[in-house]
Structure formats: structure tokens, C-alpha cells
């Protein structure tokens, strides 16, 4: 369970999060939706301590992660895996080395055990025979899948997905969403997905939270969000130009 | 206006504090978690071995021009025999460490900033942090150790090549007595001269790694941010090397 209470965050004079409250239930897939530039990625980075709030509390399994020493924060971060918006694969390493890296650094597995775990993680995401390739030799969809393999390889309790399907074609998008559902069913982790994919994300997530003007406007099941009467949520789902959400 | 001045002063002080903290934390990490030998050796190859060509080239021409200028000046006093001493002392005490450091700054310092800066803007550093790994151990510490090893070695090579550059021009082209060139050098150059040059280049290695890594680690957004960080890194490293050189020379004289 991850809890955010009264989170405020500004960059210079720009207020991004303005008293945000959110409970992310354990073992479920929670999607955070909202217009571009509203601070969804900023919110995600608060969950893992990559950004610290100006005020407010972030708790992971009942432990506050504010102002912790690096070693204490790292202990909590060991519960997490993260798939970044731009995947953030290490570009000087091969696919194998990228996926093997967390295993080499965080475990005492032997070389052969690491080889078999990497092969299994890559197979889980539907990738074969690309171990020796470098990230810049891969397509966008393949990079996302390698990123997903790296995020799940240590079998973390919580995985954060920052726009996992942005820039991909509809078929690959569906494949990535299916992959998230399948790996979630297999490992049972808590997933937080920042996404713009309406309506596909309603099929993937068990909870959806709409972020608007620095606050969570509504948090509920996909059905509750789809049938919401809030004008901003209705406008966002319908993609209408008229409504409280203004294009910047 | 007063508010703007106050804001920029606070920002400057904060940046200075962050720069100082970066150096102290890097040195602490060298003692605490120096990183793997493979990472360090890779960086020695990048900072040291791959700088060899440019070091040899600049050393040869620096020595040759010292031979020319030294001969011109010394011949006015009839002291051409002291040419070896003049070339060797200039190189070993001053030009070797400083020019080698400036060459490495241009070649490797800029690349260090660009590499870490690109890792910053493509969230690769964030990825390390989310894996509960300290980015300093992988990105910063090996570069510090490699620069501290490479710079004194490159400086020594610069000195030797420079001395032979001076010999080529002074002895082979201008007719200075070859025995006098090396004999006077042996008489005049003492261990303290060599030691001070090596100490200088060791400290310049720290400066190159420090500013190169710092500017990349805190690079701004996008390609423009990395490009700005790279330029600032080269300029700032060069200025600090020259300023630090003055203070170190005044202490070591």
C-alpha cells in the first residue's frame, strides 16, 4: 500500500502538485490518467523518492520515505521496479547486460543462474535472440519490453510504469498492455501506470485516478471513472476541446 | 532589483555548496566504495591511453618551440649550453602538467560531461537510483580514480617527449652541444622539480574528473542542456587548473 497525503510540489513558481491525496492499494493495477503536463510523472517519481515533496507525506507499506538517508531510502527502493517513459536502458550495455545488471549488483547469483534468469525474463516479455544487441538497435516496442524485463527481473513488490505505450503503434500498444496484465497475474505485484491511453487503460487497470490541477479529481474503478459526471473527466475521456481542460 | 540580486546570490552560494559537496562525496566514495576494477581500467583506457596521441603531439611541438625560443634568448647571453636545463625545467615544473591537463580537459573532460549529461537527460541515472544503486559508484568514482592515475603518467610522457623535442631543435637543427644539453639538465633538475610536477598533475586529474562529472550530473534539459554543460565544463576546468596552478606553484617553489 502506498499513501500520499497533502503533497505539494512546485518547480520555481510553477505549482505542480497542490495538496494531492491518493491511496494505492497493494497487489492491484492503479492507473493515473490526466492531461499532459499535469504532473503525472512528477507524482510517480515521488513514490520512489526520485523527487521529494515540498510538503506532505509519502508512505510505502506504512514507512515514510521523506528525508531519509540514502541507505534507508535504498532499502525501500528495493521493493520497486520502474519502467521509464523513455525506457532508460543503459545505452553502453547490451540487452543481456541491461537485464542482468540488477541481478549482478543486488544478488549473489552465479553467472549461470543470472544467464537463466535473464533468458527467462526476456522470454516472459516475448523476446528471443537479441541478447547481444544494443538498445539503439531495437525498435520502440522492443525497448519497452526489455525495460519491462529489467523492471521485473528482481521480482519487485511494486512496479511503476511511466507511459509504457507512448509512441507505439496500436498493435504493440495492445501487446504491451497484455504483457503488463500477464506479468501482473503471474507475479502479483502492485502496479502504478501513468497513461494517456483512453479507453485501453480501463481494460488494464483495476483502479483509475484522474490528476487535474495538482489534485486527484476522482479515484475509483474504471467503471466509476467512465461513468463519472465530473466535467473535466468527461472531457478527458471524450477528447473534447470544450470543457474545463484548456490546451496550453 | 534587490530581490533579483538576492536570488542570484543565494543561487550562486547554493551552487558553490553543491560543487564542494560533490567533490567531498566523490572522495569519500573512493575510500568507501571505489567501484569495480574493470570500470576503473575502462576509464584509464579512455582518459589515459586514448589521450596519448594528442599528448605526444603537443609535447613534441611544445618542446620544439621551447628549443627555438630558449636558444634565441640564451644565445643573447652566450649561454646556449643551458638550453637543456631551460627546456627541462619549463616542462617538468610547469608546462608538462598544465598543458597535459588542458589537453585531457579538451579531449576527455568534455566527453565525461557529455556522457554523464546524456545519462542524466535520458533518465539512466534515475534508473540506477530506482535500482537502489548509488550512481557515484558506477559513474563518478571510477573516473576520479582513473584521472588520478592517468594524469601523472601522461605528464611524465609529456615531459620526456618535450625534452626530446627541444633536443631535436636545439641540438640537431641549431647546433647546441649534445653533451651540454643533457649534462646541464642532469645537474639542474632535482627530485623536487619532478615531484612538484607530478603532484600538480595528480591534483589536475582530480579537478578534471570533479568538474567534468559535476557538470554532467547536473546538466540541464535536452541536447541544449548537455551542450551548455559540456562547454561550461571545459571552460571552468581550464580556469580552475590555471588558478590552482598558481597557488600550488607558490607553495611548492
Rg of chain B, alpha carbons: 21 Å
Order of helices and strands of chain B: HHHHHHHHH
Please give the largest β-sheet of chain B: none
Apparent shape of chain A: globular
Largest interface: A-B, 24 and 12 residues
Summed over residues and divided by their number, the pLDDT of chain A gives a mean of 89
Number of strands of chain A: 10
Alpha-beta content class of chain B:
mainly alpha
Poorly predicted regions of chain A are none
Tertiary shape of chain B: elongated
Mean pLDDT of chain B: 92
Strand content of chain B: under 5%
State the secondary-structure class of chain A: alpha/beta
Note the gap between the termini of chain B: 46 Å
Classify the beta-strand content of chain A into a percent band: 15-25%
Helix content of chain B: over 70%
Order of helices and strands of chain A: EEEHEEHEHHHEHEHEEHH
- What is the CA-atom radius of gyration of chain A, in angstroms? 18 Å
Helix coverage percent of chain A: 25-40%
Number of helices of chain A: 9
Topology:
The complex is a heterodimer of chains A (248) and B (253).
Chain A: E1 2-11, E2 14-24, E3 29-33, H1 40-47, E4 55-60, E5 63-64, H2 70-77, E6 80-83, H3 95-106, H4 111-124, H5 140-152, E7 158-162, H6 170-187, E8 190-194, H7 200-204, E9 207-212, E10 215-220, H8 222-226, H9 231-238
Parallel strand pairs in A: 3-8, 3-9, 6-7, 7-8
Antiparallel strand pairs in A: 1-2, 1-4, 4-5, 9-10
Chain B: H1 2-32, H2 37-47, H3 52-75, H4 83-121, H5 124-130, H6 135-173, H7 178-188, H8 191-217, H9 222-252
Amino acid at each position: 500500500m502506498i499513501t500520499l497525503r497533502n503533497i505539494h510540489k512546485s518547480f520555481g513558481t510553477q505549482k505542480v502538485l497542490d495538496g494531492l491525496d491518493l491511496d494505492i492499494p497493494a497487489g492491484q493495477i492503479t492507473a493515473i490518467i490526466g492531461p499532459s503536463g499535469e504532473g503525472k510523472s512528477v507524482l510517480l517519481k515521488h513514490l520512489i523518492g526520485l523527487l521529494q515533496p515540498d510538503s506532505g507525506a509519502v508512505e510505502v507499506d506504512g514507512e515514510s520515505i521523506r528525508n531519509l538517508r540514502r541507505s534507508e531510502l535504498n532499502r525501500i527502493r528495493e521493493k520497486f521496479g520502474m519502467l521509464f517513459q523513455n525506457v532508460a536502458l543503459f545505452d553502453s550495455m547490451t540487452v543481456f547486460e541491461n537485464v542482468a545488471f540488477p541481478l549482478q549488483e543486488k544478488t549473489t547469483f552465479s553467472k549461470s543462474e543470472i544467464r537463466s534468469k535473464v533468458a527467462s525474463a526476456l522470454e516472459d516479455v516475448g523476446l528471443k535472440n537479441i541478447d547481444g544487441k544494443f538498445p539503439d538497435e531495437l525498435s520502440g516496442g522492443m525497448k519497452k519490453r526489455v525495460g519491462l524485463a529489467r523492471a521485473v527481473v528482481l521480482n519487485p513488490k511494486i512496479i511503476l510504469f511511466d507511459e509504457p505505450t507512448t509512441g507505439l503503434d496500436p498493435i504493440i500498444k495492445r501487446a504491451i498492455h497484455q504483457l503488463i496484465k500477464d506479468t501482473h497475474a503471474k507475479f502479483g505485484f502492485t502496479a502504478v501506470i501513468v497513461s494517456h491511453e483512453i479507453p485501453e487503460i480501463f481494460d488494464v487497470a483495476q483502479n483509475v485516478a484522474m490528476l487535474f490541477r495538482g489534485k486527484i479529481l476522482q479515484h475509483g474503478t474504471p467503471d466509476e471513472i467512465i461513468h463519472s459526471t465530473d466535467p473535466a473527466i468527461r472531457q478527458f475521456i471524450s477528447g473534447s476541446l470544450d470543457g474545463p481542460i484548456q490546451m496550453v | 532589483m534587490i530581490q533579483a540580486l538576492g536570488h542570484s546570490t543565494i543561487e550562486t552560494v547554493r551552487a558553490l555548496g553543491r560543487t564542494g559537496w560533490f567533490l567531498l562525496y566523490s572522495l569519500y566514495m573512493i575510500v568507501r566504495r571505489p567501484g569495480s576494477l574493470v570500470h576503473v581500467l575502462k576509464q584509464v583506457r579512455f582518459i589515459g591511453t586514448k589521450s596519448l596521441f594528442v599528448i605526444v603531439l603537443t609535447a613534441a611541438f611544445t618542446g620544439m618551440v621551447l628549443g627555438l625560443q630558449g636558444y634565441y634568448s640564451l644565445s643573447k647571453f652566450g649561454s646556449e649550453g643551458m638550453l637543456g636545463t631551460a627546456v627541462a625545467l619549463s616542462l617538468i615544473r610547469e608546462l608538462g602538467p598544465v598543458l597535459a591537463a588542458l589537453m585531457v580537459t579538451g579531449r576527455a573532460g568534455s566527453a565525461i560531461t557529455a556522457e554523464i549529461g546524456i545519462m542524466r537527460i535520458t533518465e539512466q541515472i534515475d534508473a540506477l537510483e530506482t535500482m537502489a544503486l548509488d550512481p557515484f559508484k558506477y559513474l563518478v568514482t571510477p573516473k576520479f580514480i582513473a584521472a588520478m592515475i592517468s594524469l601523472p603518467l601522461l605528464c611524465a610522457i609529456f615531459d620526456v617527449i618535450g625534452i626530446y623535442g627541444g633536443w631535436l631543435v636545439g641540438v640537431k637543427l641549431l647546433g647546441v652541444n649534445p653533451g651540454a644539453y643533457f649534462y646541464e639538465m642532469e645537474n639542474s633538475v632535482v627530485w623536487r622539480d619532478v615531484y612538484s610536477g607530478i603532484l600538480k598533475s595528480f591534483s589536475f586529474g582530480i579537478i578534471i574528473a570533479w568538474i567534468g562529472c559535476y557538470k554532467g550530473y547536473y546538466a540541464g534539459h535536452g541536447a541544449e542542456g548537455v551542450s551548455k554543460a559540456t562547454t561550461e565544463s571545459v571552460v571552468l576546468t581550464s580556469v580552475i587548473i590555471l588558478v590552482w596552478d598558481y597557488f600550488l606553484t607558490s607553495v611548492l617553489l
